[in-house]
Amino acid sequence: MMRLGRNGPIVLLTGLILLVAVAMPALSGTSLEVSRYLANAIGQLAAFAVLAISLDLIWGYLGILSLGHGLFFAIGGYVFAMYLLKHSFVVTGTVPDFLQFMGWKDFPFYWAGFDFFPYAFTVAVLVTLLVSGIFGYVSFRSRVGGVYFAIITQALVYVAMLLMFRNDTGFGGNNGMTGFSVLFGWQMGTSGMITALAAGSLAVLALVLMLCRWLVGSRFGALMLATRDDEIRLQTLGYETLRLKLIVWCLSAVIAMVAGMLYVPQVGIINPRVLSPELSLEIAVWVAIGGRGHLVGAVIGALLVNAVKFWLSSAAPDIWPFILSGLIVLVVLVFPNGLMDLAKFRLTRPMGPKRMAEEIGEARP
Amino acid sequence: MSLTALLVDGLTVRFGSFRAIDDLSLAIDYGEVRAVIGPNGAGKTTLLDVISGITRPKQGRVLFDGALDLTQTSEAAIARAGLRRKFQKPSVFEGLTVRQHIAIGADFGFRSRLDTPALDDRICEVLETVGLTEHVTRLAGELSHGQKQWLEIGMVIASDPSVLMLDEPVAGLTDEETERTAKLVRALVRHDRAIIVVEHDMDFVERIADRVTVLHEGRTLFEGSMDKVRADAAVVDVYLGR
Amino acid sequence: MKLARLTAAAGLLAVLLFAPGLRADTLDRAGLVQELCGDAGAMGRAGTALVATAASGSAEDRAFAAPLARAVIDRKLGCDDAGAVLDEGGLDAITRMPRAAAGTPRSPLLSLKNRPVFELADAAFALRGAPAVAQRAAALKTLERRPAQIPEGLLDTAAAAESDAGLKEQIDTLAQTAALNASDPAARIRAIGRVAENPSRRALTRIAALESDPAYAANPEFRAAVDAATARIERGIALGDTLATLYNGLSFASILFMAAIGLAIIFGLMGVINLAQGELIMIGAYVTWLVQQGLRVAAPALLDWYLVLAIPVAFLATAAIGIALEALLLRHLYKRPLMSLLATWAVSLFLVNIVRVVFGTQNMQFETPFYVSGGVPVIGDFIFTWNRMFAIAFAIVTLALTWGVVRKTPLGLNIRAVTQNRDMAACIGIPTRRIDMMAFGFGSGLAGLAGLALSPIYSVNPQMGQNFIIDSFMVVVLGGVGTIAGTVLAALGIGQINVLIEPLWGAVAAKVIVLLMIIAFLQWRPEGLFAVKGRRK
Ligand SMILES: Nc1ncnc2c1ncn2[C@@H]1O[C@H](COP(=O)(O)OP(=O)(O)O)[C@@H](O)[C@H]1O
Ligand SMILES: [Mg+2]
């Protein structure tokens, strides 16, 4: 029933992602082998791209800006770190640093079972759904939206950061968790493992991209856009927009959680700084730069911004904040649809001419 | 099904200390087209807001079909019960196509209950009625003001509502477009449907309305046929005479 | 209770009446020397006289008697037929004229019973007369060993004359202990009453110790006095703690208010949350620092007044930044509040980093002028500190200023008009864009003032803005869009709740609970405390 729009760019991008995912392991051992550093960077970029998609889903397609998506990213990251530490402990007997630091003899009771990945994954999904579900329900029910929602989510992630900075929570506190040695029984840090993680992340990215593409192209996706454009109009046509928003919000949170899971084994550390409001704001910047409401845009935005950041943080770390703020101002003032304006091609549907200049679904609550 | 589609009973709506609707009571029957007229700020839109659940009254109730108290029902549930409304300010989804609008209007729920051929038929039928057949694949944001008005009407009639509310359906339309709208409204009359039209255009009202309610400062000033309205001194005083 | 007070008052009166009389008695110097050379009984009497002199003798008598006590202890007093000589024959003990001893002088030996009396007298003289603080402190140590023997009045006069603040406080403490342990029950009861007059945790420990005193079981009057004092002190402490909490909450609320009021005005007017507000606070603090440095160079005499002199500078500097921000950036983002959010974040990022590059990341050093240092102890352990008072007073002035501008000036009238209905305001000819700019400048200037008020209390560094911004969001969300009253109430509420919860579960828990409470509150009033429900369609 839907006009699908031009599918070209997204198919192209997915193909490219899968190609890289296949090529990296295939080329290992040949003269074209991807360096460990590059492979690791590609893997991390893929995790960020997944994170950007999760935000684009609710901001671009539902008009709800979350400035607290780092929270769900962190849930995935922390749970995966717990799995890695517990697993490493079971396999090699290494006692995690933070236990020694706190002078604890044993893992806290809630670490039980975390060496079994399916259990850890289930816990991560449930916690994400619980947090996003409760928060989303109370916010959407009282019609909190727009700027209000944005700053309350930011307060949420900030408070979570303060909480995780405490050392007595059993999640590593200030120093976080690091020293992962084994993943699914394999030694970490080897070239093979790095390539495998990167390829795996790319595969997940492609999967998430296709899933979201399918979702936004469905009747449900049309309803998402309708909610964004005029929520009350849609409600007075008989749709429970509260439920719709809640479903998309929770889905988005789970995708962000998965991104966190991909991220942690590749950087080898997690600490409360992933919960800093800055990271959550940066996600919004990736999406804005790439182009809100375009999945391809979100992916490209995340890849570009982070690639520049990786490169600069070794070359000239002091300049990066200035470049980032300059980029934001540029995008916000000159290219309201981000790179999509620059590229002058529309990947899904263009926003209506009026809506190009004016955001939707931002009416104050 | 009772004869009365909507029963408004002792309704009061306040914004701060201001009474936008003041102890208003009225009944609207199935099968009729009821025009609600009155000067700006009389409370017409507010009345429709209460009926569609967007504004909650301070006092009073609104019974649909003699049973469902709309003041206690959510917007979506009211719509699902068969009450649809076109807003005063054209409200369409700028990022969706004309076809998507009608598909959304024809059905509710996240997955369509109609199968594709049935839905296609319905969409064609509605687009035919509102005259937007050749714009089926265009985005709503690209339509003209009049086309948006019709698109919204199409969207709200697509589900065959039992109560249809139209808030200023011909505001800003050309004479010819007004004429077409009047025909459309009359064509929508059915014995099991009540139509409420809020409008300023007296000629239009005269063409479509079976009965007219004149609101003034949140109260009923007059109720009856259009001829009698024109003859009523009080109405002429506050409204028509100006 | 009442009786005890009456007795105490009567006793005090008696002391006041008779003390000058006692002092008027001049010392019988010759008699004293004679007794010093007498038998143990006579020496005992002489010792008591010395102690009395130390407590209430005239300055000359004390100067006369002090060397005698010392000499007896050191066995340097030589008794001979003509009386006695000091320093083994240097001076006559009575006239203090040089004279040689007649014959072989005998130096009297202190009995075991008399020695403490003389030591007491010696220490008492030293406490009142020794030139060095260390000597007086050593004398106090000696006295502390026998609190029960210290003559009444000695410590009070010594404390009154003491110039060293620390020692003075120690003397006062000892005076109380001495009085509490006096042998006369009436004196003890009076002392208990006096201790209870300044309730604090230390006073409570003191009085509580008396419950194991034998007199507590034996003497019902004593017991009643102790119990009454305990109750009174406990009430005082509770009151003091409550006041301290309220005071801390109030000062925190003042900071919150100042950080949030600019935010609230701008949000009400344009629907924009300025994420750079925290950085404007930071800039305000840095400007204050610059003013301080400028004064240090240009007018050191005025250095202490830098906090006051910086007020216009901080306001204008941040207002200018705000106006530039509005004119260059936000103006173009009209009706795109989420994009404005990102844009203001970019500005905040820029400001933090530019300050970091220019000034470094360390905390800035601020002078503490006299009007923000120290405080007045009020009751219990509550100290009314001036730096907090400065913040509170500053917030009140800011509130008055804001209220005045919004309610009494043409600009304020226009701000209110545009806040309520922008389109209508534009229709009747209000230059809405200019109002936006001015209001943005005003709101930013208020942030600058907040930074100034913060500088004597918090550490000033490039990151400081981030500590306030989230709390001030919460104030705006809770208070409602663009209302001064809402902002004040919300700041008070959040400030007090934070301070109340903090001692129970810690600062982080306080933040968590405040956030949860705000989310819960929004269930009930989504528009915040003060906002008329608007039409949603
Ligand atoms: N959300 C609101 N807050 C305050 N006043 C309102 C609100 N909605 C409507 N009003 C006032 O109620 C009165 C009735 O408005 P409305 O029902 O829109 O009149 P009309 O008959 O022109 O449709 C008007 O004076 C309007 O200003
Ligand atoms: Mg109206």
Account of the 3D structure:
Chain C: Its main location: membrane. Chain C: InterPro entries: ABC_transp_permease, ABC_UrtB_bac, BCAA_transport_permease. Chain C: One of its GO terms (molecular function) is transmembrane transporter activity. Chain C: Residues 1-24 form the signal peptide. The complex is a heterotrimer of chains A (365), B (242) and C (537). Chain A has helices at 8-27, 36-59, 70-92, 97-102, 117-141, 146-165, 191-217, 219-229, 231-235, 241-267, 277-290, 295-315, 320-333, 339-343, 353-356; strands spanning 177-178, 182-183, 186-187, 269-270. Chain A has 365 residues and is mainly α. Chain A has one domain (2-358). Chain A has a two-stranded antiparallel ribbon. In chain A, strands 2-3 form a two-stranded antiparallel ribbon. In chain A, helix 5 (117-141) runs antiparallel to helix 10 (241-267). Residues 1-5 and 345-365 of chain A have low confidence and may be disordered. Chain B is of the alpha/beta class. In chain B, helix 3 (98-106) crosses helix 4, helix 3 runs parallel beside helix 5 and helix 4 crosses helix 5 (145-157). In chain B, the strands form 2 sheets. A 6-stranded mixed β-sheet of chain B has the order 6-7-8-3-9-10, with helices on both faces. A 4-stranded antiparallel β-sheet of chain B has the order 2-1-4-5, with helices on one face. Chain C is built from 22 helices and 5 strands. Chain C has helices at 2-24, 29-36, 40-56, 59-74, 114-129, 133-145, 154-161, 165-180, 185-197, 201-209, 214-218, 220-270, 277-298, 306-328, 337-359, 386-408, 410-420, 422-427, 432-454, 465-479, 484-505, 507-524, and strands spanning 78-80, 83-86, 91-92, 375-379, 382-385. In chain C, helix 12 (220-270) packs antiparallel against helix 19 (432-454), helix 12 (220-270) crosses helix 20 (465-479) and helix 17 (410-420) packs across helix 19. Chain C is elongated and about 115 Å long. Classes of the chains: A mainly alpha (365), B alpha/beta (242), C mainly alpha (537). The interface between A and B is large, with 32 and 39 residues. Bound molecules: adenosine-5'-diphosphate and magnesium ion (MG).
